[in-house]
């Protein structure tokens, strides 16, 4: 050692303490380095990646002006990364990689990427950063620690006053409801809005909202089907926006892992086809899209009754928000299940591990198709989609899909694999209330009639009679005039009266005929039908009445018995695990099911029909709810008095001329 030291610096050899100190310093330095290296090696994968993600935000052109946001950025990532790691977000996806830093620089961003590619996080991180950046450090620390950003879901279906929109700093809302607050909630203003995130659509409403927002805001626009339409951009007054179109050069506009096919099928055969499909995919997770709420509700009852052998759930706009969330969570948890849904589930909702998307009817347009099929094959997963088209829809829809570069092939249904459920269905239909059957049928027709693209959706091309007879409107005995009159009475209609005066000046009511009185006609006076008594007839009537009474009592007892089972069956309305065996011989009493059809809502607007024009990203389960505060269907029917409901005029949402045209057509077909 001395030799070595002497070589280096001869003077040092004289002072061993000095030597020792130097050695110790060097030793400590090496020790720390080795320790650091070891720690680095032991660092969990997530921590290394976390640092990578932080760098992602810092890497691009961030100038001095943004120095403040850099510190926010670091903090924000620290704030959110445990959550991200927990959620298995290891690497940013392409849309996240390309948009987050633009957004963090305060730029307006237009981001387009396929369904399931992670757009939600691409705007959630900047939104969260923005919120954090608004506070000072102390507040930020507090907020970050507890993640207590006040967020509000503003979606209607509640009393306007109950939505505390002015007390939240992060609002997720449907455009219609936001506009309503802008108009009606005095305490709400948006002049200090910092960031607007939206999915384009609902043109008029968005125009009106944008008018109420400050020009200096930041706007992030994300979609799976985005265009660079100048018209759209002009109305949003974007400032020098950054376009990020991740899959612009891709061959197709839908995920590469998605396989898409279509079949051509007559309307009257669709129910058989769907049943056969479900029967041959019992171990899968399937979403089936229908045209309207009524159809979902009605076919849910039908299919549960047919007992396909797997759970069936339903998600539609007439459900309360809590119910929708419950169904959503239920479906996510299940390994195999079918979800019957309207377009409320078509956009933005992230259902993991869905194997199939089946469209029972043609979607409104190619964009709706892209969003619907996008509920499967999400984030690197595979998936399949089947579109069921009517012969009249095939040509036009295909050309629309081609235009949007959606790859889809025609396949034939193997007739041997088709199960006919016609007989079972007829038995069920015989028991089902006609009002329910009719309501589903007309709702479907109405939804077709309301579609803008008349080339694809021609209600006059539909073979209505076949469809009606096969699936929804089993022929029933012709209603007697008596029944009709009874209905009229129930609806509390005021019937006109016809009064005439005799030559003597007495007033006699000719219509409706008066009850016979028990006052015997005075001698010599002719029985004119309004007075007098016929004992034989009275006796006969009494007997008939007695018989009717007995019958009524029996029916009442039977109903009481049935209603005991009702509680259990009610549950199974939303979700039924059905098994094929044992189904056939069983008696089914439809009155044991809750009546989901509101008495006056036969022609009410189906609020899901316009859901293709989606609202905010990330679209919530509550989107598409109408703002009328309409109650959940089943509850609504219980609470609303019958007479009131019946007296309410039908509002089809069509113009008078359109109403007339549709009605005439339907009458023509059914005559
Ligand atoms: N960086 C990531 N790492 C792993 N998984 C991710 C990442 N980003 C998103 N995901 C997951 O990918 C799935 C799809 O994400 P997301 O719902 O944001 O897609 P999207 O682009 O908004 O789709 P859509 O347009 O259909 O709404 C989600 O389950 C999400 O958790």
From TrEMBL:
Which residue range or ranges hold the Helicase ATP-binding domain?
Answer: 100-244
Protein name per the record: ATP-dependent RNA helicase
**SUPFAM superfamilies named among the record's database cross-references:** P-loop containing nucleoside triphosphate hydrolases (SSF52540)
Q: Which family does it belong to?
A: Belongs to the DEAD box helicase family.
Q: InterPro entries, from UniProt?
A: DEAD/DEAH_box_helicase_dom, Helicase_ATP-bd, Helicase_C-like, P-loop_NTPase
Alphabetized UniProt keyword annotations:
ATP-binding, Helicase, Hydrolase, Nucleotide-binding, RNA-binding
Molecular function GO labels: ATP binding; hydrolase activity; RNA binding; RNA helicase activity
Where composition is biased (Basic and acidic residues), the residues are 552-574
What lineage is this protein's organism placed in?
Eukaryota, Metazoa, Chordata, Craniata, Vertebrata
Q: Report the catalytic activity.
A: ATP + H2O = ADP + phosphate + H(+)
According to the entry, every stretch annotated as the Helicase C-terminal domain falls at 257-426
Composition-biased stretches (Acidic residues)? 624-634
Task performed by this protein? RNA helicase.
Q: Where is the signal peptide?
A: none
Q: Does the keyword Glycoprotein apply?
A: no
Renumbered residue ranges of the record's region Disordered: 1-22, 546-658
Report the EC code(s) recorded for this entry.
3.6.4.13
- Report the domain of life of the source organism: Eukaryota
Let me see what the UniProt entry remarks about domains: The Q motif is unique to and characteristic of the DEAD box family of RNA helicases and controls ATP binding and hydrolysis.
The reply on keyword ATP-binding is yes
């Amino acid at each position: 050692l001395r030799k070595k030291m002497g070589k280096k610096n001869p003077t040092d050899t004289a002072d061993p303490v000095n030597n020792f100190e130097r050695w110790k310093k060097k030793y400590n330095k090496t020790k720390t380095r080795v320790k650091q290296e070891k720690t680095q090696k032991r660092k969990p994968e997530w921590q290394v990646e976390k640092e990578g993600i932080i760098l992602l935000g810092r890497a691009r052109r961030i100038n001095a002006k943004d120095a403040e946001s850099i510190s926010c950025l670091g903090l924000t990532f620290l704030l959110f990364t445990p959550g991200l790691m927990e959620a298995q977000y290891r690497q940013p996806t392409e849309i996240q990689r390309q948009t987050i830093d633009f957004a963090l620089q305060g730029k307006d961003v237009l981001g387009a990427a396929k369904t399931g590619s992670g757009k939600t996080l691409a705007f959630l991180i900047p939104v969260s950063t923005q919120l954090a950046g608004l506070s000072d450090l102390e507040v930020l620390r507090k907020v970050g620690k507890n993640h207590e950003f006040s967020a509000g879901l503003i979606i209607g279906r509640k009393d306007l006053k109950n939505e505390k929109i002015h007390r939240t700093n992060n609002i997720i809302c449907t455009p219609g409801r936001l506009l309503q607050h802008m108009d009606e909630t005095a305490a709400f203003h948006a002049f200090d809005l910092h960031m607007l995130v939206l999915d384009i659509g609902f043109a008029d409403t968005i125009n009106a909202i944008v008018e109420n927002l400050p020009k200096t805001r930041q706007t992030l626009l994300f979609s799976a089907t985005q265009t660079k339409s100048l018209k759209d951009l002009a109305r949003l007054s974007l400032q020098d926006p950054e376009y990020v179109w991740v899959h612009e050069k891709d061959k197709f506009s839908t995920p590469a892992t998605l396989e898409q096919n279509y079949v051509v099928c007559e309307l009257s055969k669709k129910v058989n086809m769907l049943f056969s499909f479900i029967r041959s995919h019992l171990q899968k997770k399937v979403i089936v899209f229908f045209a309207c709420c009524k159809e979902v509700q009605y076919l849910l009852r039908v299919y549960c009754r047919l007992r396909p052998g797997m759970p069936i759930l339903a998600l539609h706009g007439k459900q309360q928000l809590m119910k929708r969330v419950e169904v959503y969570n239920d479906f996510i948890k299940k390994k195999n299940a079918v979800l019957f849904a309207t377009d409320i589930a078509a956009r933005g909702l992230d259902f993991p591990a869905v194997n199939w998307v089946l469209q029972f009817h043609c979607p409104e347009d190619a964009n709706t198709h892209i969003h619907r099929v996008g509920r499967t094959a999400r984030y690197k997963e595979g998936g399949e989609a089947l579109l069921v088209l009517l012969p009249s829809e095939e040509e036009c829809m295909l050309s629309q899909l081609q235009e949007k570069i959606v790859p889809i092939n025609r396949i034939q249904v193997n007739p041997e694999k088709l199960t006919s459920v016609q007989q079972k269905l007829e038995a069920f239909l015989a028991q089902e209330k006609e009002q329910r059957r009719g309501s589903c049928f007309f709702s479907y027709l109405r939804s077709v009639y309301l579609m803008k693209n008349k080339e694809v959706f021609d209600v006059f091309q539909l073979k209505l009679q076949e469809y009606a007879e096969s699936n929804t409107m089993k022929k029933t005995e012709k209603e007697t005039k008596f029944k009709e009159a009874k209905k009229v009475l129930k609806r509390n209609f005021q019937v006109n009266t016809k009064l005439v005066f005799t030559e003597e000046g007495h007033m006699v009511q000719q219509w409706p005929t008066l009850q016979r009185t028990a006052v015997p006609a005075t001698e010599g006076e002719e029985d004119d039908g309004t007075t007098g008594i016929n004992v034989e007839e009275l006796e006969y009537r009494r007997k008939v009445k007695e018989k009717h009474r007995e019958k009524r009592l029996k029916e009442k007892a039977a109903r009481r018995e049935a209603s005991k089972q009702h509680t259990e069956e009610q549950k199974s309305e939303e979700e039924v695990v059905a098994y094929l065996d044992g189904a056939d011989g069983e008696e089914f009493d439809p009155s044991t099911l809750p009546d989901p059809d509101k008495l006056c809502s036969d022609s009410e607007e189906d609020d899901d029909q316009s859901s293709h024009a989606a609202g905010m990203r990330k679209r919530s389960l509550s989107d598409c709810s109408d703002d009328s505060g309409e109650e959940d269907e089943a509850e609504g029917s219980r609470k609303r008095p019958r007479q009131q409901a019946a007296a309410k005029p039908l509002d089809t949402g069509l113009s008078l001329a359109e109403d007339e045209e549709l009605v005439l057509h339907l009458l023509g077909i059914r005559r």
